[in-house]
Amino acid sequence: MLVLAMALGGCGKAAQETAVTEEESAVTVSTRSVGTGTITLTNSFVGTISPQETVMVIPLTAGTVTETFFEVGDTVQAGDVLFKIDDEAAKLQYETAQLGVKNAQQTADSTMDNLLNQQDSTSLQLEGSALQSKSSFEQAQIGYYTAKEAYEKLDKQCSDMKKQLEALKASQGISGNSPVSSKEIADLESDLASLQSARDQAWQGYLTAGSGYRTAQEAMNLSDETEVMTQEQLDQSVASTEDQLALSIDMAKLSAAQAELALDMYTVTAPVSGVIESKAVEVNGLVSQSGPAYTIVNNNTMTLTFQVSESVKDTLSPGQKITLERNNETYTASVTEIGTSVNPQSGLFQVKACVAANGTELPNGVSVKVSADTYRAENTMIIPYEAVYYENEGAYVYTSVNGRAVKTPITTGIFDDENIVVTGGLNLGDIVVTSWSPQLTDGVLLHAVDSGSGEETTDSEKEADTDTQTDAETDKAE
Questions:
Q1: Is 392 exposed, middle or buried (0-12, 13-18, 19+ CB in 10 A)?
Q2: Segment 231-245 mean pLDDT
Q3: 165 and 213, same structural domain?
Q4: Chain centre to alpha carbon of residue 54
Q5: pTM for the whole thing?
Q6: Which of 74, 135, 381, 390 is deepest in the core (most CB within 10 A)?
Q7: Looking at 40-44, 332-336, 403-407, 452-456, which range is the least confident one?
Q8: Sorting pLDDT into bands at 50, 70 and 90, what band is 466?
Q9: Which residues contact 130 (CB under 8 A, 6 or more apart)?
Q10: Are 299 and 359 in contact (CB under 8 A)?
Q11: Mean pLDDT for the chain?
């Protein structure tokens, strides 16, 4: 402690005053600048190992076992025959169904041949009838035009003779000296009457021929229509019969396929590759669909199952990597399934993960320690955990401001063994005290060194400390 005495005098009066000043000592502390970082919390659980794939082979039919081909512990490939069941009755049913297909095909072929022959015969009959109708029509047409021509010829002759007779009569009446005699007129009138009679007969023949012509034409048209309609009906009948026969064949084939499928059920094969874990059938023993005959496990990859709380469940995601330990060996797993329903007994949620290990390394049923990253804060404000203090009002730190300690309340988030997340009270770049000292209090002078390197902190802090020390030295000099 340095004591400085100063003598003061004046105005004939002497006075002496002693000022005692105590030099302030600095507390040496470590500091660190507030920055950003990531904190990840890892939780541990107990999990159980099981094969990723377990298949229970249950036969689709019941009967007496005739052969078995694999025992417990044997390795099988998908498709290997595990055992056979007595299939004599099934073989008989299959052979019967095959005969049914053959009979249906033969019946269809025979029926179609008969039907097509009938269609050909009917078509020939229709063609003959059409030709006959056409021939009758052509003959009627010739008769019609012949009768018409004959009538028209006689009618013209009658008309010409009538005009001739009228001319003769006219000339006879004009001149009494006409060379036309009465006999000539009488003869001409007789000829006209005969010609008119012939014309009338021709007219009747013409009418009759016309009626026959129209009747023959209608008959020919009707024959043509009948041929077309009958042919359509025959085609429809052939198509319908063909469809029905095809359906009969398909039904027979379906029955044969079902019989073949039923026969295949009597030979039981491995649906997957793996290792036989259990066997429940014996030769000459009965087997049914009530329980598994074989159990096959795939031990190439294993499944890890563990349970977590709802809060931890919400932090996990499919595909997330986790680790597990057993006998000082560490394995990696990937989350494949996160349960959505809580276990009513444990109140936890089931999580499954695929483990990159086989059944030899991690046997079925063993328990392992599971470690999974749960809570995580990325690129957030963090400070060393040792810098934080707690009191009734909450958490606080000491910051270094102009070389002195400042008690600063803060709010915090998650933390690990080294760092803690700061959610309020500090800013990036603030300097916090990271070491403890019994002399560390609010406002105390600090001598700061970097906590990482042991060196003094930033130049600004160094300058602040130097200024303080200079003031003390000045007082000391005075």
A1: exposed
A2: 87
A3: yes
A4: 26
A5: 0.46
A6: 381
A7: 452-456
A8: very low
A9: 220, 223, 224, 227
A10: yes
A11: 84
Residues 150 and 251 in one domain: yes
Say whether pLDDT at 465 is over 80.
no
> What's the Cα-to-Cα distance from 470 to each of 29, 405, 444, 458, rounded to whole Å?
20, 19, 17, 18
How many domains, in total, are found in the chain? 3
Residues 6+ apart with CB under 8 A from 280: 291, 292, 293, 294
SS3 161: helix
For tokens 């229709």, the residue is 126
Instruction: Tell me which amino acid residue 270 is.
Output: A
Q: Does residue 210 share a domain with residue 106?
A: yes
Give me the DSSP letters along 347-392: --EEEEEEES--TTTS-TT-EEEEEEEEEEEEEEEEEEGGG-EEET
Contacts of 240 by beta carbon, 8 Å cutoff, 6+ apart: none
State the amino acid at position 373 in one-letter form.
Answer: D
CB–CB of 362/343 below 8 Å? no
**Residues whose CB falls within 8 Å of the CB of residue 373, separated by 6 or more in sequence, listed in order:** 40, 41, 42, 320, 322
The reply to whether 204 falls in a domain is: yes
Amino acid in the structure at residue 196: Q
Q: Name the residue range of residue 162's domain.
A: 90-263
Domain end marker among 352, 376, 400: 376
The torsion angle over the Cα atoms of residues 182, 188, 194 and 196, rounded to 10 degrees, is: -120
Question: Max CA-CA distance within the chain?
Answer: 216
Per-residue pLDDT tens for 164-179?
888 888 877 655 555 6
For residue 344, report the phi and psi dihedrals to the nearest 5 degrees: -65, -20
Rounded Cα distance between 227 and 129, Å, is 9
pLDDT of residue 454: 32
- Considering the domain architecture, whether residues 384 and 470 belong to the same structural domain is answered as yes
- The encoded tokens of residue 146 equal 């012949």
233 shares its domain with 183: yes
Angle at 357 between CA 355 and CA 363, to 5 degrees: 100
* 13 within a domain of the structure (yes/no): no
Amino acid code (one letter) for 260:
E
- The predicted-structure confidence for 386-407, as pLDDT tens digits, reads as follows 999 999 989 999 999 999 999 9
- Provide the pLDDT for residue 323: 93
Residue 346, domain member (yes or no): yes
Helix (H, G, I), strand (E, B) or coil at 445: strand
Q: What would the pLDDT profile of 128-178 be if each residue is shown by its tens digit?
A: 888 888 888 889 899 899 989 989 999 999 999 888 888 888 877 655 555
Terminal alpha carbon distance of the chain:
15
pLDDT category of residue 380 using cuts at 50, 70 and 90: very high
Read off the pLDDT of residues 302-314 as tens digits, 9 standing for 90 and up: 889 999 999 899 9
Q: Which two tokens stand for residue 27?
A: 């507390």
